[in-house]
Amino acid sequence: MGRWGFVVMLGGLLLMGANPLISWGFSSGLRPLDPAAGGAAAGAASCRTCHQDVYRAWAGSRHAAAATNALFVSALEKEPDPRCVNCHAPLRAQGRRDEGVNCAVCHVRDGKVRTARPMSALGEAAHKSELAPALAEPGFCAQCHEFAFRRADGSLSDDAPIQSTVTEWRAYRDRGGQKSCRDCHMAEGGHRFWGAHHRPTLDQAIAYSLSPSAAGCRLTLQNQAGHAVPTGDMTRRLDVVAVTAAGRRRVVQSLVRTFRFVPDEAGGGMRKVRDADSTLRPAERRSLDLPADAARVEVVYWFTHPRNAMTPQLRDTETRRVLFAADLEEDVPCAIP
Fold it and tell me: What angle do the packed helices 138-145 and 165-174 form, to 10 degrees?
């Protein structure tokens, strides 16, 4: 296993408070969860009787739709990698593919329900439990939300990971940030796991301001999230778009991670590595001068690459959202007298 694989699967757990001595059975998507090795085949419906509020929250979450949402289905058709299914439907071999990441994926191992807090006497009477404070730590999230590229021989690459959300969170913490993953993503929504597909959460990620510049207007973006923006899927991007009075659109800057193929020393062929990263880093403040002929500015969040957005089964609301827009001539008199 390469350096990044070690950091994510073991070192990350140590640094962020998880207990690496408790086996979870995750493998950065290299394998599905195996019930014989501590996984679980229990369906979410079996939890609903006693945990109705939690069940309803989960049922409306992206975890529940991890393997069935249109973006994932479309991406898997283009690149049918079993590793993607191992993360998005880790219990598919047990007939739970359509439940995505269900209750058992995180909470059930070896016939015991793992909880971050001590279970009540009523809960203990209903099922065996095991205290696992790691569930409340970013290191637990890292087991799915941070992972490296795979080499031809099946090992994990030493290069920068495909997704680095938890490493980005550590950078946020090192700059004085106080929030953990669950503070934002499991706050009022609990097991809704609010993220980029929850508009209020996405709106809070960046603060926007306009000010005069020598050319006309300057747009400033301030990252208010506990990680880079965008983060997560490698095809996500944020485009700052200037629009002329005639309606001509021009991308002023794309905040995106790009990748390229290099020879794979481990087994021949080619493998993918990260080439560049222009995403908005934690706490970063970035200013962009808009073209002199800009009559309007928009900040567009893409959940997938724009060329993928042309897939017929994907609706506009599933592929992109306009996070900020201003008519410069009407809303903001930026020109310097």
Answer: 140
Using the structure block, give the residue that is written with the tokens 């923006």: 229
User: Which are the contacts of 176, defined by CB distance < 8 A and separation ≥ 6?
Assistant: 283
The pTM assigned to this predicted structure is 0.87
Q: What is the pLDDT along the chain (337 residues), one digit of tens a residue?
A: 444 443 444 444 433 344 444 578 888 888 888 755 544 567 899 999 999 999 999 999 999 999 999 999 999 998 898 999 999 999 998 889 999 999 999 999 888 899 999 999 998 899 889 999 999 999 999 989 998 888 888 788 877 788 999 999 999 999 999 999 999 999 876 899 999 999 999 999 999 999 998 878 999 999 999 999 999 999 999 999 999 999 999 999 999 999 888 888 877 788 888 889 999 999 999 999 999 999 999 999 999 988 888 887 788 888 999 999 999 876 666 754 4
| Long-range contacts, 325-331 (Cβ 8 Å, 24+) | 325/296, 325/297, 325/298, 325/299, 326/210, 326/296, 326/297, 327/295, 327/296, 328/210, 328/216, 328/217, 328/290, 328/294, 328/295, 328/296, 328/297, 329/245, 329/295
d(CA 253, CA 85): 33
Q: Which amino acid is at 211?
A: S
CA–CA distance, 192 with 55 (Å, rounded to integer):
9
Residue with tokens 């269900």: 102
